[in-house]
Amino acid sequence: MGAMRTILAQTLLVAALAVLAGAVSLDQPTQVPIAMAEVTAAMQKLKTTTFGSTIMSFLEGDVKPQDAKDLFDAFDLILQSLQDLIKEENTAYARELFSSAQFRVTLKNSVNLFQKKVDTTNALLVEVLRPKAERSAETVEEESKTVADSQAELKQITEDNVRNQKEFKAQQKNLKELINAVDKAIGLIEKVKDNLTAAPQLLQVHRENFRALAREIHEQVDGVKHFMYKPLIKALIQMTLKGDFDTNEAIAKILELLNNIRSKLVTQQLDLELSHSEAEQAFKGTSKALSDLITTSTKKLKDAQKELAQTAQTIEVQEADLKELEEQLDQWTDAWEKAEEALNEFNAQHKRTVKDFEEEIALVKQAIQVLENNGVTRPAAL
Question: Tens digits of per-residue pLDDT, 56-99?
């Protein structure tokens, strides 16, 4: 369009020079060095335009070249029309610019809105949900380990307690048997002592009964495991039954020794029972603590697993929303960028159009100036 207008302006200048060629003296052709073929071609082009037809109607009309009023009027009309076109162009430009500004503001607001949504969703994922999922996963791992370790420890101490119970009962039975054997040995020796004191001659009478009882004690002592005094008790009983001594003092020392042995066995028994009681209390306390820990950790584990599942589901939804928001943001951004490109092109086109009009105006004025400089004067207004 601009190129056509430029051609028009150039042809107008040629037309003016053609008129000039008829207005000046033909006796001096060197004053207007114009090829008539070019003038003819220019006139043919003028016939196809509105402004050109105005001039051509003048050129083809039956008028005298000296009467240039219609020609100047045509140029004035062209100038006015070009100026009007510039005004129209500026008005349309302003209107379109305002409409474009509103459209671009709408686009930009949409871009900002979706950018904010993208940022908010991304922040929710990065700063809240994913760290929360990581913490839940760590809690699941920690509590799973706590439950497994506590269950293994509880199983171990329960097995140890069962074994300790068996060992305690065995040791307790052993000590009872030892004490019982020592008590019988003491009883046997005291009977021997009493018989010697009351009637020494009866000792021989009851010796067989004593020997039978001694054999029973021997069997009991032999049946007791891990008894360090076993040989000693056997020897003392044998000595007493043989009567290898004459005085009660020796028997009294034997009884004192056996009573000391009994006292030590009773002390061991009490220590064993006390130790077992303490161990049993410790087992019960540890067992309860482990059971409570398993219960608490199991609840924490289930809560963490539930929270992890819920958070994972929320993350999945938010990531899908984020993807959709990013796609919409890309679409709005692309639309805004295209609107900016269209605006830049629109501004450039407007500048080119105005420039073309201004150049045409300058060319028309130049054509008028050429006419005036070559003696074609503007007629005075009536």
Answer: 555 555 444 444 566 677 778 878 888 998 999 999 999 998 88
CA distance 63 to 75: 17
Residue by residue, what is the 3-state secondary structure of 185-232? Answer: HHHHHHHHHHHHHHCCCHHHHHHHHHHHHHHHHHHHHHHCCCCCCHHH
Dihedral Cα 354, 355, 356, 357, nearest 10 deg: 50
| C-alpha to C-alpha distance for 377 and 20, rounded to whole angstroms | 11
Interval 208-237 mean pLDDT: 58
The answer to whether residues 139 and 353 touch, using CB atoms and an 8 Å cutoff, is no
Per the listing, tokens 């302006």 go with 9
Q: What are phi and psi of 374, to 5 degrees?
A: -105, 20
CA dist 314 and 378 (Å) reads: 86
DSSP one-letter string for 39-95: HHHHHHHHTTSHHHHHHHHHHHSS--TT--HHHHHHHHHHHHHHHHHHHHHHHHHHH
Output the furthest CA–CA distance in the chain (Å, rounded): 200
Q: pLDDT, tens digit, for every residue of 338-354?
A: 999 999 999 999 999 99
- Please give the angle made by the CA atoms of 249, 250 and 252, to the nearest 5 degrees: 65
With a cut of 50, say whether residue 189 has pLDDT above it. yes
- The encoded tokens of residue 252 equal 């009294």
pLDDT above 60 for 296: yes
Instruction: Please report, in angstroms and rounded to a whole number, the separation of the first and last CA atoms in the chain.
Output: 38
* CA 61/CA 55 separation, integer angstroms: 10
- Taking the C-alpha atoms of residue 200 and residue 204, their distance in angstroms, rounded to an integer, is 8
Whether the CB-CB separation of 325 and 118 falls below 8 Å is answered with: yes
- Residue predicted with more confidence, 360 or 108: 108
Composition of the chain by helix, strand, coil, percent to 5: 90, 0, 10
**Is the pLDDT score of 288 beyond 70?**
yes
Q: Are 245 and 251 in contact (CB under 8 A)?
A: yes
Q: How far is CA 376 from CA 56, 62, 141, in A?
A: 18, 18, 104
Which residues touch 222 (CB under 8 Å, ≥6 apart)? 230
